[in-house]
Amino acid sequence: MPTILGANSDTRIFPIDNSLRFNDGDSPDLKRLPSATGQSIKGSLSVWVKFSNDNTEVAILGGFDNSGADDNDGYLVVKRIAAGNLEFAGRDTVWLKTTQLLRDTSAWYHIVLGIDTSLATADDRQKLYINGVQVTSFATRNNATRFQDFPMNTTAGNDDALLIGADEDTGGKGLFFDGYMADFYWIDQGQKEASDFGEFNDDGVWVPTAYTGAFGVNGVHLEFKGTGTSADSSGIGADTSGNDLHFTVTNLTALDVTTDTCTNNFCTLNYLDKDTTIPTLAEGNLDYHSINGTQFNPVRSTFAVTKGKWYAEWKYINTAGFLGVISTQSPLTGNIASDADVRSILRIPAGLYAGRNNSGGFTDVGDNSQTFSDNDIGQVALDMDNGFVYFGINGTYLKGQDGSTTGDPAGNNGGAGGSANHPSQLMTAQHDGVIAFMAGDFTQNTTGQIQCNFGNPPYAISSGNADADGHGNFEFAVPSGFFALCTKNLGKYG
C-alpha cells in the first residue's frame, strides 16, 4: 500500500478543511431516510478515515430499519473488524474481506467502494480501493449475485435508512465508529473508481482531488463544516452535493467538528504506544484516563520531532494527570520516575516540573509555588533547536526553582550551564534526539484524566489562538516561533 499523506507541503493537494470526530462511547451516528428511489443495484462510497483504536469492530457505513425490526439483509455495511481487516457485506453476507490490516491510528486511509451488481463478470460487481490502489486479493471473497439489490438507497418499505458511523442489527444500533471521518461521498450514479476522488502526487502519495461527476437521486457529499445538529444546511450532517439531502445527527456536537484531516493531519496520543493495556483513550485519542489504583501509565504522541519549536495545551479534568516529553528510544515502562527516556514532566498538583540532569538522573528543577485546579489549562512549549522545554498554567509560564528566571519560551530565556534555575533542559546525551509528547497519571489511587490539545481540541476554547501560520486552536497565545504539531507545520519546520 502506498505511503499515506504525511509531512507533505504539495500545493496541488485539494484541501480538506474539516473532519468529524466520533467517540464510540457516545453512540454517535448520522442517519438519513431516502425520500426518493435511487439506484438499488449501483452505488459508490468514498471517505477518508483515521481510526482511534485497533481492536474494536467499527462501522463506516451501515443501514438502519426505521421500523425497529432487524433488517440486516437489506442494506450494505462497510466496517473494520477487530483484527484490523476491512469488510464489505451485503444481504447479511461478507462479500469482501481484506488481507490488509488497517491498524495505524496516526494515519488517514482513503476508502472507495464501487458497486454494480448488473455486471456479468462477478469480480467486477464490487470493487474496493485503499489509498488509490484497487484491492484484488482478499481473505474472503463472496461476489454479489447478479442484480442483487440494496433497498436502503430506495423508498422500499419506506423504512430503510442510510447510517454513517454505525450499523443496525438485532438488538438495535451498534458498531459505532471511533475516530475521524472526512470528505464523505455516497454516489447514487453507478460504479466509481478511486481516481474519481484522488490522485498520486509527484512523491507517490495518494491525495484527494475534487469530485466532478454526477451524484444521482440520493447522492450526498458531507464536508462536516456545519456546527448545528439540525438536519439542514447549517448542520454537522449538511449535504453539499446540491441535492440538499441533509442527515440527522445523534450524539455529535460542534466540538466534534475538527480540522484534523487527510490534508493536515494533527498529532494525537498514540493508541499503539502506551503502557500495557492501560490507559484508556477516548475522543479521537485526545482524552486520557488512567486506572484507579495505578500510577504513571504513560502514552506517547503519534508524532515525534528532531528539530523545530512545538506547542501544545492540555486541560486537567482532574489534577492527577500530566503532560511531558519523552524520547522514543525505548518501549514505554509503567514507571516514568525511573524511565531514563523521560525528559521532562509537569507534576500535578504539586506544580513542579522536573527534568533529566547530565548524569541521567531525574531532578526537580521548577518552581513549586504554583497551584493547580481542575479544569485549568496547562501549556508545554518544546524547543528542540535549543534543547529546552517550558511549562505553563493558564497563560503563565513557570519559573526556575529559585523564582528568578522568567521561563519565557518566546524570549528563549532558557538559561545555560545546567543550572537548576532554568526551564527543563533536554540532555541530548541521554536520548536519541527524537522527542515525543507524553501523557500520564502522577498520583496513585486517583483516576487521572486530562484532555490533550495539539491544535485540535476535544474541549471548548473560549478565546481561540492559532500559530503564526494559522494552524491550531488554542486557549492561550502560541509563543512566537512555536507551532502546532500537524503535518503542514512538520513539512515546513520539522
Tally of individual helices: 1
Helical percentage: under 10%
Overall structural domain count: 2
Top-tier CATH class of the largest domain = Mainly Beta
Quick summary:
With 494 residues, this protein is mostly beta strands. The protein has two domains: 19-258, Jelly Rolls (Sandwich); 269-493, Jelly Rolls, CATH 2.60.120. Helices cover 1% and strands 36% of the residues.
Brief descriptors of the model:
single chain, eight-stranded antiparallel beta sheet, Jelly Rolls, elongated, mainly beta, disordered N terminus, 2 domains, 34 strands, 494 residues
Give a written overview of the molecule.
The chain is 1% helix and 36% strand. The strands form six sheets. Strands 1, 3, 8, 9, 10, 15, 18 and 20 form an eight-stranded antiparallel beta sheet that branches. It has two domains: 19-258, Sandwich (Jelly Rolls), CATH 2.60.120.200; 269-493, Jelly Rolls (Sandwich). It has one helix and 34 strands. The chain has 494 residues and is mostly beta strands. A hairpin with a 4-residue loop joins strand 22 (280-282) and strand 23.
Outline the secondary-structure elements:
Blueprint: E1 19-22, E2 29-32, E3 42-51, E4 58-65, E5 76-80, E6 85-90, E7 93-101, E8 109-116, E9 126-130, E10 133-134, E11 138-141, E12 160-164, E13 167-169, E14 172-174, E15 179-187, E16 198-200, E17 206-208, E18 220-222, E19 248-250, E20 257-258, E21 269-274, E22 280-282, E23 287-289, E24 296-305, E25 309-316, E26 321-327, E27 342-347, E28 352-356, E29 362-364, E30 377-383, E31 388-393, E32 396-397, E33 435-441, E34 449-453, H1 487-493
Antiparallel strand pairs: 1-15, 1-20, 2-12, 2-19, 3-8, 3-15, 4-5, 4-12, 5-6, 6-7, 7-11, 8-9, 9-10, 13-14, 15-18, 16-17, 21-24, 22-23, 23-34, 24-33, 25-30, 25-34, 26-27, 26-33, 27-28, 28-29, 30-31, 31-32
